[in-house]
Design brief:
The chain has 3 helices and 8 strands; from the N terminus they run αββαββββαββ. The protein is of the alpha+beta class. The chain has 2 domains: about 100 residues, Hypothetical protein ph0010, domain 1 (Glycoprotein, Type 4 Pilin); about 60 residues, Dna Ligase, domain 1. The strands form 2 sheets. It has a 4-stranded antiparallel β-sheet, with helices on one face. It has a 4-stranded antiparallel β-sheet with strand order 4-7-5-6, with helices on one face.
Length: about 170
């Protein structure tokens, strides 16, 4: 298990079992120092169980970002009930570290296997991670992002793409 996933798992376990927040490793390894946007995804038996993240870093270190987003994915994803103690042995966790978003001109700059997508219209914004099962066309990726953001299908949007490094 990658150290990022170990930290996310430890944060979830501690929150569920003791309702406390784990601390970053001390001393902090160099790989945990540089801040980045990250998503923590939780799956149970192959089905999504929670996913929360940040597009850009909101905390001083990657370790703090992982801990905060792991806890949020396990306890505050509005689509799911909080993870229970009896589920801890059945869940699988992944941590996606995002590159900085870059503006794109149109659909020709997208590849849903390689790039994640951010769509924006005014204050509404939707994001979809790359390389998700069943999403292999840019048009499908855009449609899902718009729906997640509450953006009308014909509404004009600003597009950004990003890459992720996925750790399991």
């Amino acid at each position: 298990m990658h150290p990022y996933v170990e930290l996310a798992s430890e944060a979830i376990r501690e929150k569920v079992l003791t309702n406390t927040q784990t601390s970053p490793p001390s001393p902090l390894p160099a790989e945990f120092e540089k801040p980045a946007g990250i998503f923590v995804s939780i799956k149970e038996e192959g089905e999504l169980r929670g996913c929360i993240g940040t597009i850009l870093p909101t905390r001083p270190t990657l370790a703090e970002e992982i801990i905060a987003n792991a806890i949020a994915a396990a306890t505050r994803d509005p689509r799911f009930d909080p993870v229970r103690e009896d589920e801890l042995e059945r869940i699988n966790i992944s941590v996606d570290v995002l590159s900085a978003p870059e503006p794109i001109n149109g659909m020709e700059d997208l590849d849903p296997v390689k790039y994640g997508l951010i769509v924006s219209s005014g204050l509404k914004r939707g994001l979809l991670l790359p390389n998700l099962e069943g999403i292999d066309r840019p048009e499908h990726q855009l449609q899902i992002c718009k729906r997640k953001a509450g953006i009308h299908p014909n509404e004009a949007v600003t597009l950004q793409r990003f890459t992720v490094t996925r750790y399991r």
